[in-house]
Design a protein that fits this description.
single chain; alpha/beta; TIM Barrel; two-stranded antiparallel ribbon; 31% helix
């Protein structure tokens, strides 16, 4: 099972909602189709078609509460999922702020009731179930002080630095690998339920340059793709596939932290470097499914293409480093 974290907070055009409209929403890369709106049906169809082509199963949709901009966009996504053979679950974001006390029993009850009525009941064929119940994710600090014991939903808390915080279930991204800016061997951490998070890149340097965050260098993962961190994570997954039930990619389209696999124009990747996270995803998901079906059923064309991508990437990195 392969999932992606999916963001529906974008307005229409550079300078609009989440496209450089404030120091808190900077972007330095551009989607292949331009700075799109998450409320544009054509954009949603383009995204879902690509996700289907890449053999993605599930979208974890970043959701900011009843009646929000993201609530409207999320409905649009759910209305189109069935056409592309996809499912989705809600990732509840902390829209009230960072005080964990705000997310109490009453708040949880209202949120879960809303999700049930507006998403699970309304879109039963495409809402994603985990452990036999509809999955609801919530991002820290939600869940720090209170989390319900639901008989209706499977609830998982997603967050950062989970080995030290001790209350989340799943990583949003593999932050324990950071900083990762030079080649090294890595071991991914398989979490509760056989969940593992991967990312092609994490780079929030622009936030530090704007004075919004600090210590960005300690969070870097492969900012220009030259160490092939994403390929190395997928290769680890292939070697350890029997331990894994759910792979979560951060992200489809979180442009602020530059973790996206969505096709885009990249501002820091060397021009000589042939390295496309979307194509890499597509080839590894195909390879993973074939391996799960048995070695005798592996598509040799898929293996050849994956190997060629790796070789071409290495050659382009070598050429780039030699040039420098």
């Amino acid at each position: 099972m392969v999932a992606v974290y999916f963001y529906v907070w974008y307005g229409n055009g550079l300078g609009s909602r989440h496209w450089n409209d404030s120091p808190y929403t900077p972007v330095i890369d551009e989607p292949l189709i331009g700075y799109y709106s998450s409320l544009d049906p054509d954009t949603i169809e383009w995204q879902l078609r690509l996700l289907n082509d890449a053999d993605i199963d599930v979208l974890f949709i970043s959701w900011w509460g009843p009646g929000s901009y993201e609530d409207k966009a999320t409905r649009l996504v759910f209305e189109n999922l069935k056409r592309y053979g996809l499912k989705a679950a809600i990732l509840v974001e902390p829209w009230l702020g960072n005080d964990p006390n705000l997310y109490d029993s009453k708040w949880w009850s209202q949120v879960l009731d809303y999700i049930w009525r507006n998403y699970v009941e309304k879109y039963p064929e495409v809402y994603f179930y985990w452990e036999g119940k509809p999955l609801v994710l919530a991002f820290n600090p939600i869940g720090m002080n209170y989390r319900p014991m639901s008989t209706i939903f499977t609830i998982r808390i997603v967050g950062n630095d989970i080995d030290n915080a001790h209350y989340q279930d799943w990583d949003l991204w593999p932050d324990y690998l950071a900083p990762w800016t030079t080649s090294k061997d890595i071991v991914l951490r398989v979490r509760y339920d056989g969940y593992v998070a991967i990312t092609p890149r994490f780079d929030d340097t622009i936030f530090c340059e704007l004075g919004i965050r600090t210590n960005c260098g300690q969070r870097l993962i492969d900012p220009d793709y030259t160490i092939q961190a994403y390929v190395k994570q997928w290769e680890w997954i292939l070697r350890n596939k029997d331990r894994i039930r759910l792979i979560a990619i951060y992200s489809w389209n979180e442009y602020h932290e530059r973790s996206m696999i969505e096709p885009h124009y990249d501002s820091t990747k060397p021009k000589e470097l042939v390295y496309d996270p979307y194509t890499i995803t597509k080839n590894y998901t195909s390879l993973l499914r074939n391996v799960h079906n048995g070695l005798t059923n592996i598509n040799l064309n898929t293996i050849t293409l994956t190997v060629l991508i790796f070789i071409v990437s290495m050659l382009s990195i070598y050429a780039y480093v030699k040039k420098e």
